[in-house]
Amino acid sequence: KLLLAKSLAGADDIIADSVKQVLETEEYAARRESPAQKALLERLEREAYKNCRIIYAQIKDSGFEILGTEINFGAGDGDFPPLKLSAGGGEYRLIGKVDRADCTDTHIRIVDYKSGKVDAADSALFTGRKLQLYLYMAALKEGTGKKAAGVYYYPISDDFSEENLNLLKGNSLADEKVLLAQDKNISAENPVSVHLAVKFKAENGELKAAGNSLLSEEEFDAYVDYAKKVSEKALSEISEGKIELSPYREVCGYCEMSGICGYEEELCGKTRKVAAVGKDTICGAVKARGGEEEV
After folding, report:
1. Region 195-203: what's the mean pLDDT?
2. How far apart are alpha carbons 276 and 254 in whole angstroms?
3. What distance in Å separates the CA atoms of residue 220 and residue 137, rounded to the nearest whole number?
4. Which residues have CB under 8 Å from 242's CB, separation 6+?
5. Going by DSSP bridges, is the β-strand pair 214-215/169-173 parallel, antiparallel, or unpaired?
6. How would DSSP label each residue in 204-262?
7. CA distance linking residue 52 with residue 56, whole number of Å
8. Exposed, middle or buried: residue 194 (CB in 10 Å: 0-12, 13-18, 19+)?
């Protein structure tokens, strides 16, 4: 409903109605009896308003239309077929649910809503910790026949600053036409996007984009292929019963099984680390080894 609102005022009405409905449910209504819980609910309400307004602007400021929300691929009567992966001489079918996907006639972008800290760095993909968005893109590229425009996390938080107020965090296709379709407010007079981590400057009357988060079409395809190859490697190792301890940096701190796996005793707390990771690292791994780089 929010994304179909005709104006910001209309969006505000929808937000207010939705927030009211949620807070009047038995689960939340009971919490208003406690001053501390009441303050927490008020913070939650502010967070809902801010984030809903930003999400509304992301759509209304762009030439992209909503393909869908909570898009299922592969599960039951899914919106799209499963993503097929090959490993160990067999075929596996990956199923999933995409928070939101927007598209034009030719391109598609994926937005995943995240609470807490967001890590969209290339090292997160390279080490196999953040494959999700690129696997989603692989599934929807195959399902729609469209090209990748961007994969993004949107952090749900009420801790905003001027630097990250509206920003979608992730990689974008290095194509000015597609970028400008994602934020129609950009112009020579207003070269700063409030939605993308991309900088623009005017050259000979044309806007040119720059930024570390930009990928060429070939690079984007390599990132997607890398995520698939790493997943296939993991599937092969699981099917072979390979369960050696090889944690990456701080990930054991979030694992519920860390107390029984023997990691601290066997590895003495040592973890894997990688040097600086960039486009050449990931694209080079795909070209040289078909994405079979150790992660």
Report:
1. 86
2. 23
3. 10
4. none
5. parallel
6. TTEEEEE-TTEE-HHHHHHHHHHHHHHHHHHHHHHHTT------BGGGGGG-TTTTTS-
7. 6
8. middle
Give the length of the chain: 295
Full-model pTM: 0.86
Nearest to 250 by CA among 273, 280, 224: 273
Expressed in percent and rounded to 5, the helix, strand and coil fractions of the chain are: 40, 25, 35
CB within 8 Å of 145: residues ≥ 6 apart: none
pLDDT tens, residue by residue, 137-183: 999 999 999 999 999 999 887 665 545 556 899 999 999 999 999 99
Token code pair at residue 216: 């060429």
Q: Are 219 and 279 in contact (CB under 8 A)?
A: yes
The widest CA-to-CA distance across the chain, in whole angstroms, is: 63
**Beta-sheet pairing, 169-173 with 199-203:** unpaired
The DSSP letter of residue 189 is: S
- Tokens in use for 12? 């505000």
Span 23-71, pLDDT tens digits: 888 888 777 778 888 888 888 888 888 888 888 989 899 999 999 999 9
CA distance 160 to 165: 5
Residue 179 and residue 256: Cα distance in Å, rounded?
A: 41
Q: Which residues contact 26 (CB under 8 A, 6 or more apart)?
A: none
Answer left, alpha or beta for residue 209, where phi above 0 means left and psi between -120 and 50 means alpha.
beta
Q: Is 211 left (phi over 0), alpha (psi -120 to 50) or beta?
A: left
The rounded distance, in Å, linking the Cα atoms of 182 and 217 is: 16
pLDDT band of 184, cuts 50, 70, 90: very high
Contact of 194 with 150, CB cutoff 8 Å: no
